[in-house]
Amino acid sequence: MMLFTAERTPSGTSYLATGQGQPVVLIHGVGLNKEMWGGQIVGLASHYRVIAYDMLGHGASPRPEPDTGLLGYAEQLRELLDHLQLPQACIIGFSMGGLVARAFALRYPQRLQALVVLNSVFNRNPEQSAGVIERTRQVAQYGPNANAEAALSRWFSREYQAANPAQIAALRQTLASNDPQGYLTTYELFATQDMYLADELGSIRAPTLIATGELDPGSTPQMARELAARIPGAQVAVLAEQRHMMPVESPRLVNQVLLDFLQRLQTSQHPTQGIVA
Where does the secretion signal sit in this chain (predicted)? Predict the structure, then answer.
């Protein structure tokens, strides 16, 4: 059994680390916490030093000030790397974590060994933007549990929900127990920053993989392809029949995509652009 304990940085960021080798940092999505990465920690830790942490306003980390922007979340990641004395790392961000990873890549390119963006958003169309803005309004009025049921239905296949009721109930509880202000601050960024510094994405030079699920309704294959087109040499992986929470629902499949990408970095620092799956 893999054993590790959660620790804290001087500023209060809660994180866990296990394994040895090149560092890989995992950033969860809005409303979740570092525990979502259990399948990836198990799958990657025999090859890499894996670090997962709680974003501001989530889990056991401090909540952000109401006016905190994406740069504040990138600064949290920078402080974590400094605390661990890591000059560089591969950054893997899921959903909202993908926005944080993008912001970090643009603010601290010298700290980025490689970039992976999973099931994240880019260039929402008017209908998609209206939907997420409405969900933000509901969160502001009713709190973190405002749209939990709809979120779980988007995130997981019906078959997975039916086969794993205890895990779905635990996730429902995680969403409901979020700090209201921290959750709202983060959700507002998730809802509005899909085009954050989009015109600067061409400056990213680290090897990059953009991946999502074929059936992810909020982080669509089209978004993944459009985002990858902005980043020189970025690869795209669209995982067949997968929905938003594919790291949780299909960890072996996601781990194989991650390991294929990470292991190719050892032989090539400039992967060619293309479709991986």
Answer: none
Residue with tokens 């309704």: 217
- pLDDT at position 270: 47
Q: Are 15 and 25 in contact (CB under 8 A)?
A: no
Give the single-character DSSP code of 64.
P
Q: What is the spatial distance between Cα 248 and Cα 97, in angstroms, rounded to a whole number?
A: 15
Nearest to 120 by CA among 102, 101, 100, 94: 94
- Residue 2 within any structural domain of the chain: no
208 neighbors 116 (Cβ within 8 angstroms): yes
pLDDT of 2 higher than 80? no
* Residues 211, 191: Cα–Cα separation, whole Å: 20
Going by C-beta distance under 8 Å and a sequence separation of 6 or more, which residues neighbour residue 196?
70, 99, 102, 103
How far apart, in whole angstroms, are the C-alpha atoms of residue 223 and residue 67?
27
How many domains are there within the chain?
1
The predicted structure's pLDDT at residue 266:
75
pTM: 0.95
Query: Is 50 strand, coil or helix?
Result: strand
* Dist. CA 54–CA 14, nearest whole Å: 6
Token pair in block for residue 70: 């994406």
Per the domain annotation, does 55 fall within a domain? yes
Tell me the average pLDDT across 229-237: 98
**What is the residue range of 11's domain?**
7-275
How many CA atoms, within 13 angstroms, populate the side-chain half-sphere of residue 82? 11
For the chain, strand residue ranges (E) read 7-8, 14-18, 23-27, 49-53, 89-94, 112-118, 208-213, 235-239, 274-275
